[in-house]
């Protein structure tokens, strides 16, 4: 049958100016996530889904306002592919790109994100009681396409690229399970013409009681 969901969040408050340039910084950001899927009535419990998320960004790195949405440690990988492609370590994989500039890490605020718009198509099935198999395709872009620092505006391409992964989970028993995945990210024009693909693979064990 059909399944769907949506959530809207707003953040507000103030943060300290770690660079000592503008003093206290007013923070206001918003985010949206929505999903739509269909589960097939079969022995394999197959499911396909479409998910999208929008997180507001900030295009001025040295003013007294922060308009980006701070994810606050949410587990992206659990909903948008099997690796956290919005994390600092992910962007650090692309040497010689804009990672670490005011687009992603403002010298003043420390975290002046350009925002993100993410869409994912996913599918999964359970061919047996112990095995669950799945695949995801993700497309991402930044919300902003420029940033201003010191009164100077810099334009950039907002295409972050797209990624795909396949994964498998095995439930050994009710307390122990294993998850393995292979992922590949194809960088967009945001990272420049010489950016390489980012390959990820991992195997984890999970104990619960």
Can you tell me about this structure?
It is a single chain. With 209 residues, the protein is mainly β. The chain is built from 1 helix and 11 strands; from the N terminus they run ββββαβββββββ. It has one helix spanning 88-92, and strands at 2-15, 25-39, 47-55, 65-66, 116-125, 131-141, 146-149, 152-155, 159-171, 176-187, 198-207. Strands 1, 2, 3, 4, 5, 6, 9, 10 and 11 form a 9-stranded mixed β-sheet that branches. Strands 7-8 form a two-stranded antiparallel ribbon. The longest helix is centred in the middle third of the chain and has 5 residues, at 88-92. The protein is elongated and about 60 Å long. The relative contact order is 0.16. The model is unreliable at 79-112 (pLDDT under 50).
What is the element string, with H for helices and E for strands?
Answer: EEEEHEEEEEEE
Low-confidence spans: pLDDT under 50, at least 5 residues? 79-112
Average the pLDDT over all residues and give the rounded result: 75
Helix content: under 10%
Secondary-structure-derived class: mainly beta
Radius of gyration: 19 Å
Distance between the termini: 30 Å
Approximate strand percentage: over 45%
**Biggest sheet character:** 9 strands, mixed
| Separate helix tally | 1
Please count the beta strands (DSSP E, at least 2 residues each): 11
Q: Which geometry do the CA atoms define?
A: elongated
Oligomer: single chain
């Amino acid at each position: 049958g059909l399944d769907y969901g949506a959530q809207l969040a707003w953040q507000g408050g103030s943060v300290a100016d770690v660079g000592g340039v503008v003093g206290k910084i007013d923070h206001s950001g918003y985010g949206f996530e929505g999903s739509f899927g269909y589960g097939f009535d079969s022995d394999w419990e197959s499911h396909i889904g479409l998910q999208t998320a929008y997180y507001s960004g900030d295009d001025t790195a040295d003013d007294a306002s922060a308009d980006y949405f701070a994810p606050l440690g949410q587990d992206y990988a659990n909903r948008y592919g099997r690796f956290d492609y919005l994390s600092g370590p992910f962007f650090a994989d692309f040497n010689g790109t804009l990672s670490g500039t005011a687009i992603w890490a403002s010298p003043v605020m420390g975290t002046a994100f350009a925002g993100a718009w993410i869409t994912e198509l996913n599918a999964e099935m359970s061919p047996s009681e112990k095995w669950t198999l799945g695949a995801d395709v993700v497309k991402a872009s930044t919300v902003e396409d420029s940033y201003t620092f010191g009164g100077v505006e810099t334009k950039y391409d907002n295409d972050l690229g797209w990624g795909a992964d396949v994964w498998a989970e095995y439930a050994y028993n009710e307390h122990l399970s294993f998850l393995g995945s292979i992922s590949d990210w194809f960088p967009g024009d945001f990272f420049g013409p010489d950016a390489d693909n980012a390959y990820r693979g991992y195997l984890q064990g999970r104990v619960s009681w």
